[in-house]
UniProtKB/TrEMBL annotation:
<protein>
    <submittedName>
        <fullName>Demethylmenaquinone methyltransferase</fullName>
        <ecNumber>2.1.1.163</ecNumber>
    </submittedName>
</protein>
<keyword id="KW-0489">Methyltransferase</keyword>
<dbReference type="GO" id="GO:0032259">
    <property type="term" value="P:methylation"/>
</dbReference>
<dbReference type="InterPro" id="IPR013216">
    <property type="entry name" value="Methyltransf_11"/>
</dbReference>
<feature type="domain" description="Methyltransferase type 11">
    <location>
        <begin position="42"/>
        <end position="134"/>
    </location>
</feature>
<dbReference type="InterPro" id="IPR029063">
    <property type="entry name" value="SAM-dependent_MTases_sf"/>
</dbReference>
<dbReference type="GO" id="GO:0043770">
    <property type="term" value="F:demethylmenaquinone methyltransferase activity"/>
</dbReference>
<dbReference type="GO" id="GO:0008757">
    <property type="term" value="F:S-adenosylmethionine-dependent methyltransferase activity"/>
</dbReference>
<keyword id="KW-0808">Transferase</keyword>
<dbReference type="Pfam" id="PF08241">
    <property type="entry name" value="Methyltransf_11"/>
</dbReference>
<dbReference type="InterPro" id="IPR050508">
    <property type="entry name" value="Methyltransf_Superfamily"/>
</dbReference>
Length: 260
């Protein structure tokens, strides 16, 4: 089995996705959420803790940081990181009293919540007066050239259903979509800003193998023969983004902030 995918999804996320994509956003999101030394911070949909650890650094000395996620396997990996409280729970029913946190943040998770508006309302509920919320989502697929090419390749090889499964993380990638959610949740002083980050994998093969292992998109959709076809085709289609055997391209994010 491919070295990228020979462990569980949580390990793949931590070992492959975090360094390639997610680690860069933690400090940006912590700043957007107004995390300062001594702050009480909640990271909703924390996964293995990429953003939570950045918030914990910003909250020291004296801060209290909690990471919450519904996935026990993700939390098992997250619990290797000391100095943070890890809680299993759902964004739509946060297990905390009103006004418990100075900063609430969520990084690339709300796209997968069952009820996005309810989750935003819950984040606002647990935010203390004067606090700040920051929620990051993937920007438009069209603005992420490597992923745009990969989505089109999946359409061509396996049909639109598979391509659309890959597109799922990008469904909130417009200002209008986020503003509509904020309005539905009645968030005060909500704004949406765009920041441009990057995707960087050691090789095209690593990128494709990692995406295949992602349970939120392609996980379980491709058999071994289909994966081999995708990997071979991607070597040609993604070659314009190769740099010294690595692959890199821009990926913007939208950050929704609200202030109480």
């Amino acid at each position: 089995m491919d070295s990228v995918t020979d462990t569980g999804p949580a390990e793949v996320y931590e070992r492959a996705f975090v360094p390639a994509l997610f680690a860069q956003w933690g400090p940006i999101l912590a700043e957007a959420a107004g995390v300062v030394p001594g702050a009480r911070v909640l990271d909703v949909g924390c996964g293995t803790g990429a953003a939570t650890t950045a918030a914990a650094r910003s909250a020291q000395p004296g801060g209290r940081v909690i990471g919450l996620d519904p996935n026990a396997d993700m939390l098992a990996v997250a619990r290797r990181k000391p100095g943070i409280e890890w809680v299993e729970g759902r964004a739509e029913t946060l297990p905390f009293p009103d006004a418990s946190f100075d900063s609430v943040m969520s990084q690339f998770a709300i796209m997968f919540f069952d009820d996005r508006v309810a989750a935003l309302r819950e984040m606002a509920r647990v935010l203390a007066p004067g606090g700040r919320m920051a929620v990051a989502v993937c920007g438009a697929l069209e603005a992420s050239p490597g992923y745009r090419v990969l989505a089109a390749l999946l359409d061509r090889l396996f049909g639109r259903d598979v391509g659309d499964a890959f597109r799922e993380p990008f469904v909130l990638g417009s200002r209008e979509a986020l503003q509509a959610l904020a309005a539905g949740a009645e968030l005060p002083r909500a704004t949406v800003t765009e920041r441009v980050g990057s995707v960087r994998f050691d090789s095209i093969a690593d990128l494709v193998a990692t995406e295949r292992a992602c349970v939120w998109t392609l996980g379980g959709l491709l058999d071994d023969d289909q994966f081999a076809r995708l990997r071979d085709a991607a070597e040609n289609e993604l070659r314009p983004f190769a740099q010294d055997d690595r692959i890199a391209f821009d990926m913007p994010a939208l950050i929704l902030t609200a202030h109480l």
